[in-house]
Amino acid sequence: MKKIKVLIVDDSALFRRFLYDLLTQDQTLFVVGTAADAHEAGDKVASLRPDVLTLDIEMPGISGIDFLRKLMQTNPLPVVMVSSYTEENGLLTIEALEAGAVDFVLKPVNGGTRDKENFAREVVQKIKAAALSRIRKTTGLDQTQKKELSLQYEQRPFSRQMVAIGASTGGTRAVYEVLRVLPPDTPGIAVVQHMPPKFTRLFARRMNELCSMSVKEAEDMNYIQPGQVLIAPGGRHMRIEGNESGYRIRLLDGPPVNFYRPSIDIFFQSVAETVGNKAVGVILTGMGTDGAKGLLAMRENGAYTIAQDKETSLIFGMPGAAIKLGASYEVVPIHKMPESILAGLSTGAI
Fold first, then answer.
1. Quick one: three-class SS letters along the chain?
2. CATH assignment, 143-346
3. Which among 56, 83, 133, 168 is annotated as catalytic?
4. Are 72 and 173 in contact (CB under 8 A)?
5. Where in the chain is the domain with CATH 3.40.50.2300?
6. Could you give the residue range(s) of every CATH 3.40.50.180 domain in the chain?
7. Residue 309 catalytic?
8. Whole-prediction pTM value?
9. For the domain bounded by 4-131, which CATH number is listed?
10. CA 210 to CA 226: how far, in whole Å?
């Protein structure tokens, strides 16, 4: 079996040693080198040709985020961000995911055995997932295309009332590419993005800065409203309840489903039951199968369902599983997704 070549980039010699010792315990990983700053990392990326890079945000000289942006322009490869949590680092982590990082892992906080074991399990899992990802240069829609899209659907009546979106690994960039070009009067959108607590709030804040629609982290009993995007908080399941006169968010505790909380399947299933043919369902890039069965339930209840295509998915697991089940009415590349969503909202029962 070919091993995954990993380059560790972190300014702390102690943490580089810790992560090196941890990764070398896995028989499928091979640490080809370590680097203390961006300049050394650039040289070693060129000479060692790693399959995956682990990258800290805080580094002397060129920051991790600036190095990442340059890397994605010149020599794109899978990157997993590894950093301590602070409010500032959290926002930078969201920007790193926008810039092309596959995923992120928080460094152990207290140094306890269980904390280190959880970190070890997570970082190894995410490095292996990153090695399977499809890294691409993303252009998305420019401002001219955004204006044309808005004009195309201006004053067109929407026959459906809400959009339900599910995403996981690679989803922050994909969700951004969808939301940033949708008109401000688009029917209400609810999103489940697999992400830990705290980060969903920061993700929502960042999307609100960049999008025409209003974006916020969902709160219990929030109503789905035109022009607003509600993002499920990490650590809580999200369901939709109500009727055609008004749909609202319910946040629930409970065990993870498909290894996730919030679970896309729980979310989509509630949309299928409550909103039925008044909904558009979208499944984007992500590892695993969460959301596939829920999207099928939506389609069977008359929703217009869309899956992201393989070519533009960072990880094709979730969309691929949905397509295999026959859950998607349409399969489109990410840059065509906003147009397909608006078309679906304007389409009658199928």
1. CCCEEEEEECCCHHHHHHHHHHHCCCCCEEEEEEECCHHHHHHHHHHHCCCEEEECCCCCCCCHHHHHHHHHHHCCCCEEEEECCCHHHHHHHHHHHHHCCCEEEECCCCCCHHHHHHHHHHHHHHHHHHHCCCCCCCCCCCHHHHHHHHHHHCCCCCCCCEEEEEECCCHHHHHHHHHCCCCCCCCEEEEEECCCCCHHHHHHHHHHHHCCCEEEECCCCCECCCCEEEECCCCCEEEEEEECCEEEEEEECCCCECCECCCHHHHHHHHHHHCHHHEEEEECCCCCCCCHHHHHHHHHCCCEEEEECCCCCCCCHHHHHHHHHCCCCEEECHHHHHHHHHHHHHCCCC
2. 3.40.50.180
3. 168
4. no
5. 4-131
6. 143-346
7. no
8. 0.91
9. 3.40.50.2300
10. 18
| Per-residue pLDDT, 347 | 80
Catalytic one of 290, 309, 328, 340: 290
Tokens of 153: 């659907």
- Asked if 168 is an active-site residue, the reply is yes
Q: Of 51, 56, 194, 340, which is the active-site residue?
A: 194
| Residues 198-252: tens digit of each pLDDT | 999 999 999 999 999 999 999 999 999 999 999 999 999 999 999 877 999 999 9
Active site residue 313: no
pLDDT at 137: 61
Mean pLDDT of all residues belonging to the chain: 91
Asked whether residue 140 carries a pLDDT value surpassing 50, the answer given is: no
